[in-house]
Write a structure and sequence with these properties.
This protein is α/β, with parallel strands linked by helices and 302 residues long. It has 13 helices and 11 strands.
């Protein structure tokens, strides 16, 4: 039978941000929900390409915009999600952390943070305030290749907002500085008093029980042997042509080695893809199962 089992993208998708949320806030699960977006004054999407990768959630961005929420999209690429947003920043890939460090320095050095909330609820403020001092607008501009006036404008928007939601995408987890970037984003929400409450918090591509998207429980192969699986094992078995059938339930482009994964998929005998659109995954598949969107129940496949 060759290689028979299953896995998903959790171990290279959102694990870094998930672990950081757990370490800083005590849970891998997002601190707010999609339906809170319309209650926010500002929502910042860190690489969260909702329109293409999570299309059923795009309605919440539209609802938020219609209610007056200012949507800020941070992504090096031009995407359909950006078309839904009021402000788009295109930093150099992998520099989100430097951008947030600059924002932290701007807010702290100008006393634009929530001092009362920090005093009553935040531990380790000095451990954040000191390291970010060197992240001036000039330095951050050099690192991110964003103009200083763009960075300053973002800082001022966040300083004025009393209800801010940040959406940490899986993309943030796939850089070598992912954990530090996620910590900086959490720190930003903490010093501005936006960790919890209506129209506040952190959204993350994580739901269900704590760690549900990241922890690989023991499953049983056809041989009856329990095993914990991960993406690396799946990839190696595809490359060795041990995998006969592959069901693609998400984008192979989310992986750091997307080109390698694409070549490995070509070595699988039969590829099935469940999708909403004729995307890149559809092009490498032998069978496509179209999905439908239901406003009441979410996603269904027929």
């Amino acid at each position: 039978a060759g290689f028979s089992d299953f896995s998903h993208s959790g171990d290279t998708c959102i694990i870094n941000a998930g672990v950081t949320l757990d370490a800083c806030l005590g849970s891998m699960i997002a601190e707010t929900t999609h339906d809170e977006l319309p209650n926010a004054e500002v929502a910042v999407l860190f690489g969260a390409n909702i329109a293409e990768l999570y299309p059923t959630s795009i309605r919440w961005l539209r609802a938020a915009r219609e209610k007056g929420t200012k949507l800020i999209y941070i992504d090096p690429r031009r995407t359909p999600t950006g078309a839904q947003c009021d402000m788009i920043l295109k930093p150099r890939p992998g520099t989100d952390g430097a951008l947030v460090m600059g924002i932290l320095n701007y807010l702290i050095s100008r006393n634009l943070y929530d001092k009362k909330f920090v005093k009553e609820h935040v531990n380790g403020f000095d451990l954040v305030a000191e390291p970010v001092q060197s992240y001036t607008l000039e330095k951050v501009s050099q690192i991110t290749r964003l103009r200083q006036d763009q960075i300053r404008k973002l800082c001022e928007i966040l300083a004025r907002s009393r209800r801010t939601i940040v959406w940490i995408s899986g993309a943030v987890s796939r850089y070598t500085n992912a954990i530090q970037t996620s910590r900086a984003i959490i720190a930003l929400q903490a010093i501005t008093g936006n960790l919890g409450g209506s129209g506040k918090g952190i959204l993350h591509f994580q739901s269900g029980k704590p760690g549900g998207g990241e922890v690989f429980e023991e499953k049983y192969s056809l041989r009856g042997m329990p095993r914990g699986l991960h993406y690396r094992k799946i990839l190696n078995n595809m490359e060795r042509q041990y995998l006969k059938v592959l069901v693609l339930d998400s984008s192979y482009r989310r992986y750091p080695e997307a080109n390698r994964v694409r070549k490995a998929i070509d070595k699988v005998d039969f590829v099935i893809h469940r999708a909403f659109f004729m995307d890149e995954e559809a092009k490498v598949s032998d069978l496509i199962i179209p999905g439908t969107m239901n406003r009441k129940t979410g996603v269904s496949f027929r």
